[in-house]
Write a structure and sequence with these properties.
Blueprint lengths: L8 H21 L4 H7 L12 H21 L4 H23 L3 H25 L1 H5 L2 H20 L1
Helix pairs in contact: 1-3, 1-4, 4-5, 5-7
Organism: Lentzea pudingi
Membrane topology: Multi-pass membrane protein
Subcellular location: Membrane
């Protein structure tokens, strides 16, 4: 059984884009006041300004969707696509934990699990095609940075 007919790759791209869009929407629902919450927190000197997160995540989400689609086109297995979906769920869960509930330590533990899931997807997608894996490297790097920032905020607050 395939995700969609292999004769309809544009539909598959739409499914990957839709899955990533749902992830982004869940995050945005819990980050309506994130800018003011973020600036009110004690932060390390290297913390980025709040306006930077929107453009970075928009770019990353496009790259994540395309990576998933490329891996699917290259024959990703059900297990690999399930792992891809799992990291999207973990991605969506972080914002409610951090901003919605203010559970900085729980969010930190969750982002470590997210990091491991992304790393596993990067490895799996590299096996399918270099482009699919490479597209996820900036995402892994950003989540690494976000984990360090999350830890700093948990320690300071």
């Amino acid at each position: 059984m395939t995700l969609v007919s292999e004769r309809h790759p544009v539909r598959a791209l739409g499914l990957f884009a839709g899955a990533v869009l749902v992830t982004a929407v869940v995050g945005s629902l819990f980050s309506v006041s994130a800018g003011s919450t973020y600036t009110a927190l004690q932060q390390p000197s290297w913390a980025p300004p709040p306006w930077l997160f929107g453009p970075v995540w928009t770019t990353l989400y496009v790259m994540i969707a395309v990576a998933g689609w490329l891996a699917w086109r290259a024959g990703a297995t059900r297990g690999e696509l399930t792992l891809f979906g799992a990291q999207l769920v973990l991605n969506a869960a972080w914002t409610p934990l951090f901003f919605g509930l203010g559970w900085f330590w729980v969010a930190f533990a969750e982002i470590l699990v997210l990091w491991l899931a992304i790393a596993a997807v990067v490895v799996a997608f590299f096996r399918r095609g270099k482009a699919a894996g490479l597209l996820l490297v900036p995402y892994l790097a950003w989540v690494s940075f976000a984990a360090a920032l999350n830890l700093s905020i948990a320690l300071f607050n």
